[in-house]
């Protein structure tokens, strides 16, 4: 899918059009990309405004509360004199999550690696702590140490760093 920075739809393949037609959280209104939650429009527009030359990912939490997300990968391009953004979508709902063993390559401990995978899969730090059988404070310490090792300061940056290791 290709959009303008102001969310106007320029082009979409058949799968993108299908997504905009059937998705509960994302759609098209008046030729523009829209979100079921109004705050999503503003948050995504802000994400696009800060999009530089490097591809980045934005995560839309599903409203059903099941922990699934729509991952929107974005890269800025030039169309002649105009700016545009290419979007690619990945829905975590019902997907089997398969990861490469990225921990050793990024100097992460097993606990840090497992915690980051859970966060990318949509869990909160509290949920991830419960899954790991550790306290919330221990989980937060793992997150801080992992972020420092990755050189990131936000979940979005962390996801962009480890998403190449997510195989499905």
TrEMBL record:
Highest taxon listed in the record's lineage: Bacteria
UniProt keywords, alphabetically: DNA-binding, Transcription, Transcription regulation
Regions that span the bilayer: none
Pfam families reported for this sequence: GerE (PF00196)
Presence of keyword Transcription: yes
Residue stretches making up the HTH luxR-type domain: 101-166
GO molecular function, one term: DNA binding
GO biological process terms on file: regulation of DNA-templated transcription
InterPro entries associated with the record: Sig_transdc_resp-reg_C-effctor (IPR016032), Tscrpt_reg_LuxR_C (IPR000792), WH-like_DNA-bd_sf (IPR036388)
Protein name per UniProt: Helix-turn-helix transcriptional regulator
């Amino acid at each position: 899918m290709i959009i303008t920075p102001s969310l106007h739809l320029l082009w979409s393949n058949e799968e993108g059009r299908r997504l905009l037609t059937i998705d509960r959280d994302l759609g098209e209104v008046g030729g523009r990309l829209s979100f079921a939650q109004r705050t999503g429009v503003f948050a995504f527009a802000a994400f696009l405004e800060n999009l530089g030359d490097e591809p980045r990912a934005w995560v839309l939490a599903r409203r059903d509360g099941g922990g699934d997300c729509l991952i929107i990968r974005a890269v800025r391009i030039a169309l002649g004199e105009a700016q545009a953004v290419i979007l690619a979508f990945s829905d975590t709902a019902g997907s089997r999550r398969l990861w490469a063993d990225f921990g050793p390559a990024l100097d992460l401990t097993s606990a840090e690696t497992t915690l980051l995978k859970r966060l990318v899969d949509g869990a909160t730090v509290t949920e991830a702590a419960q899954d790991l059988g550790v306290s919330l404070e221990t989980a937060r310490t793992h997150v801080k140490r992992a972020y420092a090792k990755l050189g990131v300061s936000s979940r979005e940056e962390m996801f962009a760093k480890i998403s190449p290791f997510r195989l499905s």
